[in-house]
């Protein structure tokens, strides 16, 4: 990195934090007259454009830049875009179905809505479980993913940054402006960071496609198999070359994301994440009006349609360009030998029961090696029998290195462009951390401290307690995050544990809105039952985790249905507790319908 790149990266991060602090400077949160609502919900004064970009900035982090681009490079291909495109429809539904209820009741946190519908125990159970997930899963996961990304990226430039140091730098920067300025500081910082991550992703996509256009056809064909041989040559246009080389990757219905998951399973984490997760919904609860909230959600939905084109597509191109580098990266992680060492040892072991599943992309590019392993597997099966074999995967590519390879090998150095891209990546990580910290401190302050510990406290005391929570939470996150290095997949870690909470919460919200006369304990029963059912599914069911979520949701709703038939209560009406303008936005509705239609068209084109 040249000095211009370093100057641009550091300057941008200073500007982001500075803008956040300056915009929240007028909020004298030590003043007894200033309410906690001003700190935790930006005084319910967020405009639609702030909400839209803040939602995207809070959502996009290293998990997307690194994990999603890596999945695009791997077997998932474009199908991983479903997490973004299904989210677009989800955001529109949240805008016009859930948001009016939330703003009408004047709630500060999502669990507070459960007290309105059920009882305070449902609110407490949701608060504690959601706080545990935010700190023990989301915060730690984002810190680790961001830190490991930065350490690998900077190592490419000759800088040795340890994992714990990277954790503390990222956590400290996020906590600094959140603790000082609250949600308003987050929203203004997110405006810059959200814009930067979209522009930064577009820059990466541009240079990736540019490199593909001039890449040697022979090398490109080798990385993707012989099927493209003779179809393209050096004069073929870049988009024709891209679509020909990656014909198998440009589909939404794949083994990694089958149609049944798209019809049912994927909606569960989406509706929880975008509609019921304090980490995200805090921004829309701070809306200046119902119209602002709806327009902000629709803006975020539109931006969601763009994300795969600036993150997943570059990942797919990265495999075309750098499959050999991904192979080297995979071997570099093996301390003694290569990814094929276990296979080589098994070949000479007459008692071995292992057979090997070779990465299909590698098998296509290396048919001789694939034939050799297939033949070996047949001899083992013949010797020990189908039931006795032990399966082991061989993954010769480090797919998660896709984004790092694109940045380090393609982005021009010492022109400020590389510095901007690095800053955009760091900004994406820090904005997500800030959102988690702000949400967790709000939950614990308003739903535990204010509700149970010191309800008589003055408003500025709640703000002070919230700041203390931020400090405690970030220390926990930075201390624990490095230990995630022992987990094989951070994405798997996050998804696996969130299912214990997300499905149950979604179930009790669905049930509570549809059935207003069931007993008051339905909220607690639903959340508790899901944890038990999902644990059972995790232990005994080996299918896709989204199927486990689907079965858990159906089971919990069935339990609540039976409960509602037996135990009744007076009908709950969601009366208005707000002074906000509750006029729906017709423009947002029209644009929302357009986003949904465009999403369906994308699925038709790429199915």
Notes on the protein architecture:
By secondary structure, this protein is mostly helical. It folds into two domains: 3-17 and 47-330 and 401-484 and 582-606, Sodium/glucose cotransporter (Up-down Bundle), CATH 1.20.1730.10; 334-397, no CATH class. It is built from 24 helices and two strands.
Order of helices and strands: HHHHHHHHHHHHHHHEHHEHHHHHHH
Number of domains: 2
Morphology: globular
Q: Which fold name corresponds to the CATH topology of the largest domain? A: Sodium/glucose cotransporter
Q: What is the name of the CATH class of the largest domain?
A: Mainly Alpha
State the fourth-level CATH superfamily of the largest domain: Sodium/glucose cotransporter
Going across the biggest sheet, name each strand in turn.
1-2
Biggest sheet features: 2 strands, parallel
Average of pLDDT: 85
Radius of gyration: 25 Å
Structural class of the secondary elements?
Answer: mainly alpha
Low-pLDDT ranges? 28-34
Distance between the termini: 41 Å
Beta content comes to: under 5%
CATH architecture of the largest domain: Up-down Bundle
The helix content is over 70%
Overall strand count: 2
Figure out the total of helices.
24
């Amino acid at each position: 990195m040249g000095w211009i790149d370093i100057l641009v990266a550091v300057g941008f991060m200073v500007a982001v934090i500075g803008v956040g602090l300056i915009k929240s400077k007028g909020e004298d949160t030590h003043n007894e007259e200033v309410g906690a609502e001003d700190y935790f919900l930006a005084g319910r004064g967020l405009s639609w454009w702030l909400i839209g970009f803040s939602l995207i900035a809070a959502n996009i982090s290293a998990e997307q830049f690194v994990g999603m681009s890596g999945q695009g490079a791997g077997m998932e291909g474009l199908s991983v875009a479903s997490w973004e495109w299904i989210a677009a429809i989800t955001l529109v539904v949240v805008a016009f179905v859930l948001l009016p209820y939330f703003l009408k009741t004047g709630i500060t946190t999502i669990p507070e809505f459960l007290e309105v519908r059920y009882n305070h125990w449902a609110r407490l159970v949701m608060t504690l479980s959601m706080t545990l997930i935010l700190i023990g899963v989301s915060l730690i996961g984002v810190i680790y993913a961001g830190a490991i990304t930065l350490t690998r990226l900077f190592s490419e430039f000759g800088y040795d940054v340890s994992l714990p140091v990277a954790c503390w730098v990222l956590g400290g920067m996020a906590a600094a402006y959140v603790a000082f300025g609250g949600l308003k500081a987050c929203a203004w910082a997110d405006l810059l960071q959200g814009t930067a991550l979209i522009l930064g992703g577009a820059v990466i996509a541009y240079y990736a496609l540019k490199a593909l256009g001039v890449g040697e056809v022979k090398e490109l064909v080798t990385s993707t198999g012989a099927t493209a041989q003779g179809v393209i040559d050096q004069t073929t246009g870049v988009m024709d070359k891209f679509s020909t080389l990656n014909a198998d990757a440009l589909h939404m219905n794949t083994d990694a994301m089958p149609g049944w998951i798209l019809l049912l399973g994927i909606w569960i984490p989406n509706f929880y994440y975008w509609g019921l997760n304090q980490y995200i919904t805090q921004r829309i609860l701070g809306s200046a009006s119902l119209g602002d909230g709806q327009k902000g959600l629709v803006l975020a939905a539109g931006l969601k349609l763009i994300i795969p084109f600036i993150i997943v597509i570059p990942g797919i191109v990265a495999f075309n360009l750098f499959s050999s580098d991904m192979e080297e990266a995979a071997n570099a992680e093996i301390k003694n030998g290569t990814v094929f060492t276990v296979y080589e040892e098994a070949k000479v072991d007459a008692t071995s029961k292992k057979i090997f599943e070779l990465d299909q992309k590698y098998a296509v590019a290396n048919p001789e090696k694939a034939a050799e392993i297939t033949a070996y597997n047949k001899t083992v099966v013949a010797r020990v029998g189908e039931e006795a074999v032990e399966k082991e995967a061989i993954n010769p590519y480090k797919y998660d290195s896709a984004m790092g390879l694109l940045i380090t090998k393609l982005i021009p150095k010492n022109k400020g462009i590389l510095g901007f891209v690095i800053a955009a990546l760091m900004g994406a990580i820090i904005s997500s951390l800030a959102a988690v910290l702000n949400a967790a401190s709000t939950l614990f302050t308003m739903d535990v401290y204010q509700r149970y510990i010191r309800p008589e406290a003055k408003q500025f005391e709640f703000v002070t307690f919230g700041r203390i929570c931020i400090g405690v939470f970030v220390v926990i996150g930075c201390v624990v995050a490095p230990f995630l290095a022992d987990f094989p997949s951070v994405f798997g870690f996050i998804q696996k544990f969130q299912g214990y909470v997300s499905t149950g919460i979604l179930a009790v919200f669905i049930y509570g809105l549809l059935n207003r006369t069931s007993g008051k304990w339905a909220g607690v029963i639903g959340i508790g039952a899901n944890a038990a059912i999902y644990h059972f599914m995790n232990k005994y069911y080996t299918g896709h985790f989204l199927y486990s979520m689907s079965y858990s949701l159906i089971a919990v709703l069935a339990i609540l249905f039976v409960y509602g038939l037996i135990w009744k209560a007076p009908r709950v009406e969601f009366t208005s507790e707000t002074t906000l303008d509750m006029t729906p936005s017709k423009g947002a509705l029209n644009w929302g319908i357009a986003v949904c239609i465009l999403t369906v068209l994308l699925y038709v084109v790429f199915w």
